[in-house]
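Structure tokens please, single chain.
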Amino acid sequence: MNSGKPQISLPSLNEIITLSQGFNFHHKHNAEEPAYVFSDKDSDELIAVNYREFVRACDRVAHFVRPGRSGAIDGQVVGIVLVTDTLQYQAILVGVMRAGLVPFPISHRLTPEAIIHLLKITSSHHLITTPTTLPAGLLDGIRQELSRGENGYELQIQEMPGLNYVYPKLGKEKASDSFEPYPPPSQTPSADDIAVFLHSSGSTGLPKAISQTHKRLCQWAIVGKLDNPRLRYSAIGLPPFHTMGFIVCTLKPAFHGLSIGIFPPVDTISGAQPLVPTPKNILEHAKRTQVTGLVTVPAFLQTWVHSKEDIDFLASLKHVLFAGGMLSTKTGDALVEAGVNLNSIYGLTELGPASRFQVQRGREKDWEWLEMTPRIDFEWVSQGDGTYECHALGDGTYECHALNSKTHEVAVLNRSDKRGYATSDLFVRHPTNDKLWKIVGRLDEVIIHSSGEKTVPGPIEDIISTSPFVQGTIVFGRGHDYPGVLIEPRAEYAIDVHDPTALEDLRDKIWPRIGEANKVVPKYSRLFKDMMLITTHDKPLPRAAKGTVIRKQALQAYMREIETTYVQMGDVEPPKNWNPDTVEEWLVTQTSQMNRSKAFLVTEDIFAQGFDSLSVTFLRSRVLSALVSVNPSASDIFSQNTIYDHPTIRKLAQYISDVATSTELVTSPNHCSAIDAMIELYSDGLAPSVLLTGSTGHLGSRILARLLTDPAISRVYAFNRPGTRSIEERQADQFNSNGLDVDVLKSSKLRFVGDLSGKHLGISEDLYDEASTSL
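Here you go.
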């Protein structure tokens, strides 16, 4: 739409300028250019608020907040808790800046306690709000929270000015219209003065207030600069108090000259509520405002991918950018295949935008891979399992040779050894392009099972979220043998979770996506149908402003149900009787349910047919649940090793039948004691050999280190699953990650061997004989 027009003038970022100066530049050089565009709700007329009108609106807000630049002291913080439209929100935010004050946009979704916490830690005694549109009870809760302090906390609560005051001639203001400019500052703020406060989501506790200086905002603008400033981006659905919303709605018009498509404004003074973003109305208004690019979050893309009309519109845009969470590979690939120019972007409030904003030609299929900006000095910390944690190094680090460190300053320093920020985000490197990285989760989200194995939930959740029946997912399982998944169904598929028929039906509908996830994860991370926990309608999953599920709060809310699910995992209907044939049929059913309806041959080794240690854990749980009803002592003798000792369904059925119908196996320990005594007698003085499986895991590597340094151990056979890299490389990486001495891996007593699923365990016959006789 604007491609035929000449390029507009842009403010230079070679020197630090403020946001106000950026808008002043456009007011002087690009006054008639649109800054924000919307379509009137009563017609299809396109209404543009140009830079002149927007700057004047901001000055009116400055007059309203701090008349004549008097009273308050420059740099005082003003809290902003509004439920209003983007156009008015931006005028309030920038207007507070033009008044010489520091705005702090705060989410209206936070609790009164969290809001007061943010105001107090920033010494803010001034709050601008919208009493008629805030969530019920929020303002009263803020006042009550204030009154609880011993001396109280002074807070001026001011209602934001009305639409007619801020934009008296909405979309039609001319240069000749009367207007009183706000008095300019007596001196220009310094580069290191605070320009704005932004806050974290609060998903791990109370939200944190993070200051951003004028210098950092300019650095953000340089990282996120686009080649074509004549683009029009849709910011519809982006919360303006969120960092991504702030960058798109505030930074880009100020520094890049982009016009922003938005919802039409409303007069909140009269109680009118702004439009609530939905997948449908976001695209409707994106079309009406004639945008050429769109910035959104994964949750909306997951919905649009199911509509050909929506996909066709997205494919007509020059750019579709998303951030704030991970998008499933299946959804992204489908969009790209349909011609959508999809691009993942990465950034943090503590760091700002950190990746390039545009996919290079010929790399469209790499939509989920990020190319980090060279302006930030990154350090990649290996986790020993093919993933890396990203550390961003701030200004002043390696100044003598790392020039990029002078070009970008982080807002939060959390490393003791260097001036930098450890993001806790986990990435994998592109298999063929070292410049590209893909985020796979967070370090604090990795689930460590009781076995020491680790499940990364992000990729699993992404695949399950592509189901048309699913609204949200959280994988759980920390401290347990195996994972489960908490699923929030879409509203139209909500069920009574206490209705077993409805529950089974919904699980069946979602199961195909679970099956897809199980194909791409390690065996120990596989999900079983009985571990699908469905949310209740009265307890929806808590979400952050960007629409992502807040993991910690969700797990806390469903903690009791999760633990109950693990307890009930073994609750199954026992066999009709304990005859071997009946038990055999029952075992066939159980093993099939646990392995994607696969039918196991009853006379063949179940491990050769695909059974693994996780399956053993599940099966033992079910067998014990059935056995204890007839033999309360069953748990004392039916261990996981029992299944390994009876590796066919027929043998196991016979053993279970014997346990259920005989007391001799339980009450006569003499035979076992005699065997133990014989072993002790003839092994006296022999240095033992040890077979260790899973030595490349977190726990396994520590056990291996202890065994290799124990003089009483003569040999250690380390068996591991095959991988893309050698066992030796994986083992060394895990030792480095755990701070263990890598040199002990050179010990002559260590043998890296095997494929647990192969003949003779995948090793030579001689070595197999050695291990068989020494273990």
